[in-house]
Amino acid sequence: MTDMLRKTPVPQPPPADRLPGDEAPAPRRVIAGLVFTELLIGIGFAMPLVASLGLKVNEIAPDDKESVLSSVMAAGAIAAFVLNPVFGHLSDRTAGRFGRRRPWILGGLAAGLPAAVVMATASSPAQLVLGWVLSQAAYNAALAALAAVIADRVPAAQQATVSGLFGAAQFASVFPAFLLVGLIPDNTTALLLVPGIAGAAGAAVSWTLLRGEKAVPARERTPVSLRSVFTSLLFDPRTSPAFTAVWLQRFLLQGANALIGTFGLYYLMSRLEMSTAEAAALVATTGMLSVVGNVVAAAVFGKLASRTGAYRAFVVTSGLLMAAAMTIKMLSASVWPIYLATTVAAIGLGAFYAVDMALVLRVMPTSTDAARWLGVFNIAKSLPQSIAPLLAPLLLGLGTDPIGPATDGKNYFALYLGGTLAALAAVALTPLIRHPRLTRD
To answer: For residues 213 and 82, is the Cβ–Cβ distance under 8 A?
Structure first.
């Protein structure tokens, strides 16, 4: 694929004084392609994160599962942190008759299958780390190119709506994970293989739905260098304060979610003293409830954001709802508050992912290298996944849990308090998001 790398001008967004109605809407086929492909990529990420990695670790390292799972998650998140903007940078410079985005989308979806095989056959933590890193590489290549399709082919007036549908697809991708975990909690091999099979099988459909991308002339080329790849990871916060604030908000909210999500299965086993099978069943049930709330909230709030333009108000609402949900879990020692917290968090997270993509498209420092900038933005999602698994054991080790039983010595009160504070810090950053394209709130 490297022989297709070229410098290609990225379509510029409309000037600030252009009315939304001046732009033709994106074809429904392209929107369907974005949603369907995000669903496939989301399945690749969601299934291992929901439970299958935790279950696999419990099989191969039951006596040290917390630290092993933290290491596996951290390695994968570091890979995503580095590779997402790099793949975005390469996608921006890919030339050829098939365009810049589709080759990377197809290649990433196809590469997810062999990575799944490595994880499914893992008999040691090292092999599981290798498989998860390969999986992160595959799906981040596809995701980096796919996110740029919104910048390339969706007009500004539609971006919040499409962002909401994009977020809804991401959340809906969790549903198959929870469903399968509930049906076959003991078949870890199948749980790890299904995402790779689904992605590889659906790649051709994605390729067809996203057709119509303009071919890039081979004459427009600038060789990709190590320097250009390295600089694709960086940006100067001083020259882009609004982008920096949005980046930090995603980092904090994703960090809060990752901090408590990684050990969700173990939280139920500790706080509610459930068996592995009982905890997995409750994860599946609350997970499906969460998916419904996420999908509905993302779709509804995305549409509302398109109509009102009040992106920052939705971010504040989502942060407060997520803080409330984590506070409920922090203080809970029975099942029913878990359902309430799940519902509140689902609405909050859905509201955030309904608008964060549209928001960042308006505050990006430049529309040139759109995939690269979206890749940098995605660091704010992947980096917390490497930090949170390392931070979580430290919080879990702070004294004893004042709410739940002290049978395993894990302080889930401190863990959820950390998540609550991160969500509130994200809300506090909202006044810093100022940009000429943000005039409604």
So the answer is: no
Q: State the Cα–Cα distance between residues 385 and 374, nearest whole angstrom.
A: 17
Instruction: Note the helical H segments in 210-275.
Output: 226-231, 241-261, 264-271
Q: Measure CA 369 to chain center.
A: 21
Could you give the CA distance from residue 41 to residue 391 in angstroms, rounded to a whole number?
27
For 432, other C-beta atoms within 10 Å of its C-beta total 13
Q: What is the pLDDT of residues 358-372, one digit of tens each?
A: 788 888 776 557 777
The 3-state DSSP class for residue 263 equals coil
Look up the pTM and report it.
0.72
Domain ranges of the chain: 2-8+25-218+225-432
Three-state secondary structure of 114-158: HHHHHHHCCCCHHHHHHHHHHHHHHHHHHHHHHHHHHHHHCCHHH
Cα–Cα nearest to 19, from 131, 173, 156, 119: 156
Rg (CA), the chain: 21
| 277-297 residue pLDDT tens | 888 888 878 877 887 888 888
* Residue 171 identity: F
Separation between Cα atoms, residue 368 and residue 21, nearest integer Å: 23
324-351 pLDDT tens trace: 999 998 998 888 898 999 899 989 988 8
- Give the confidence band of 212 by pLDDT, cuts at 50, 70, 90: confident
Q: Which residues, in sequence order, are CB contacts of 201 under 8 Å at separation 6+?
A: none
Could you say which DSSP state residue 2 is in?
G
CATH class of 2-8+25-218+225-432: mainly alpha
- C-alpha 369/C-alpha 212 separation (Å) is 20
